[in-house]
Here is the input.
Amino acid sequence: MSSLLGCTVGVAQPSGIFSHLRIQSSAVWADNLSRTSHLPTQKSSQIYNLIGTVDHRHQLDRNWMLITEVELAGQYVNQYDALNNINATTRLKLRHKFGLGPFATVIDFSTQLTGTSFKETGRNGWLFEAGASASKRITESLQLTGGASWNHFSAKRNTYNVSTDRLFLEGSWDITDRWRISLGGSRIEGKFVANAAGAIWSSAIGGQLGPEISQHYNTLAWEVSDTFGPGWVAYRNRESNVDQWWVELSPTLSDQTSLSLRYEFNKAINAIGIRYDTIFWSLGLNHQF
Here is the structure.
């Protein structure tokens, strides 16, 4: 596994209508970034992310709060610069707290719109997402969060148009005042984009890998993208599901700064049972001004 680095950027305290500023940066090692079912040809890489978020919180009454967030993010993908992108997000959250104190249940209703620009322009598009989540502190050190979301990404090229539904559950445990561990999982159903080397794709649609595979892959939206090398193909799986789970260790460095060490495993299975596994290792640094 390649080495990982995290960094932060110092900026002035936000003023005006926005009251909080968060800077997040991370370095990620993505095993099978190409989301390829043929493991001998899979492509892996380092990914570097930088995200800045400002928000405004308006207390509507004793139990309701409206949160507005604006987020700018950039991503650099080592070796595969077609995936380099910048994006901007506007997010609204309506939060309800049932009672007072740290043990009160909190429910969030959220919606967001994100515009993303890739170096590979066919992937450019708009993401709309809506969801709801509930959070409950069980003890002073243990908290549970669960929820559901729906999203649709409308891209410039039809191959990259995807829609998914997601259910998730996460638990976090404050081991000490400065150390927290989180464990979670989610189930995602819908469409996802995968990639294949040109020779493998030709075999799949040409029948050399069997009639079931040929029949299925000939019904999918696809195009030669060259994203991961000459002749590589991007295609959109349908009626698929992804099982995702993660574990994260978060040491606090100060009242405003924390690290995050995360392992995430994704198992995607398409409509005819073909499996795509992806693993992410990440190190992040988060700071709130």
In short: The longest helix spans residues 198-206.
